[in-house]
């Protein structure tokens, strides 16, 4: 079943509905979602298990996530909260996570969609805030001497950013990054701060790397970005992709300040390409 769904294109699955109807997929995903939830909360599965039980869980989980990703891209479910498990009480679930309960941790790792996206975002922000506090990366704790200062020429934004940020350690990237822009005359621009100038650098960098003209990414007829098959024409193109991932990660990590940056820039890039 898993291999069958993998090779199905949208016309076969949604228009022709060959072999299975959309309601069949909906019922199947509903069953698998609750089946895996019950397996985890009742202790029927543990990550250390092996043998037939582990194989069954792995097969069911693979199929479920395949259906979930398919539905996320193009809906075949009809209920607005199809993927949410009502038996999973949010307050109890969050409390169990704070106490380190293994079943709740496994639920979050394997089937996080059973909790609403909004609650997962809040949980992620909580984890980020806790990590920053532990690592001493809060703005009140970070002094200027502990921040990373980079100089970016307006005409070499991507090159300068890649050269200075691609190799810095994760701890430094998670911390305060300050940007000094250099204008076309070679003079330092006024203003070096974390919020405004760095946000501008992040937005312009992401806009640049997702521009199809750069040939790192291309755009489908449905205006979806995908890695360019000829990206190898760039020197160190794999390292550039890694740098893109680091910048996207930084944008998500600093969501409080740049929460709309990635979405708006990517949408703008696709619109311009179309």
TrEMBL record:
Highest taxon, organism lineage: Eukaryota
GO BP annotations listed: protein polyubiquitination; regulation of signal transduction; ubiquitin-dependent protein catabolic process
Keywords: Ligase, Transferase, Ubl conjugation pathway
Swiss-Prot/TrEMBL catalytic activity: S-ubiquitinyl-[E2 ubiquitin-conjugating enzyme]-L-cysteine + [acceptor protein]-L-lysine = [E2 ubiquitin-conjugating enzyme]-L-cysteine + N(6)-ubiquitinyl-[acceptor protein]-L-lysine
Domain HECT, chain residue ranges per copy: 169-254
Entry keyword annotation includes Thylakoid: no
InterPro entries hit by this protein: E3A/B/C-like, HECT_dom, Hect_E3_ubiquitin_ligase
EC number(s) reported in the record: 2.3.2.26
Protein name according to UniProt: HECT-type E3 ubiquitin transferase
Originating species: Cacopsylla melanoneura
